[in-house]
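User: Hey, my collaborator sent me this sequence without any context and asked if I could get a structure. I don't really work with proteins. Can you help?
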Amino acid sequence: MKLWVDGGLQDAATARVSVLDHGLTVGDGIFETVKATAGRTFALTRHLDRLARSARGLGLPEPDLDEVRRACAAVLDANPHLMAKLGRLRITYTGGLSPLGSERGDTGPTLIVALGEAGRRPDSTAVITVPWTRNERGALTGLKTTSYAENVVALARAREQGASEALFANTVGQLCEGTGSNVFVVLEGRLLTPPVSSGCLAGITRALAVEWTGAEEADLPLDVLERADEVFLTSTLRDVQAVHRVDGRQLPGAPGPVTAKAMRVFDERAASDLDP
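Assistant: No problem. I've predicted the 3D structure and written it out in structure-token form, which is a compact way to encode the shape of the chain:
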């Protein structure tokens, strides 16, 4: 396995990042996960645009997006054994070598690009809600940072309850997002999703789903999940995935008609344009 670290390819078994890297010591970093099929990326330009936005929001130096593109291509080319499989291409960009503590050093950022195999998701899944909240007014709101410990805890809770995802409300009780997904609901015939102002990440797949299905943004109370006719998730590796259980509530027949149409439309549009 080959990956890219700070300017070149390295063997995964021997690649090294300093133990004093700010991404490790304080979680000072950002990342993107890009879907790769047959060695080709999907929506890479959108992902790189968001990487740059996250860097600006975190106060990191602007990433050289041309270098990131070269790194992605090099990693895909260097791992032909994954060519025929669904791949998870992970771009990580951190504050770099820094003193112990919150202050950044002056050696410059660290760039890592790695590739792993991803499992194909089932058409439907179970989710739970968790008691913890997203802060829609936080310093990291809307940024895809490496500070993911809260998601790790919530996802572990979901796994304990036989689910693949955990959904959060924000601090005012509105439906927000999952640990690594955005959420859509069908209510009285309308396809709705929380707005970015709710504190959710502006997901790449979310944006495409809104554009391609005509979904509307709306502030939604968390208990909408108790009333929704259909629920589905979107994310880079899920695409559009139906939900058949929310906590103890079953949604029989998932995917329902609106979700099934969204799945079909997304698959067709994504297949026709790899960089929409």
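In plain terms: The longest helix spans residues 257-272. You can pass these tokens on to your collaborator as they are.
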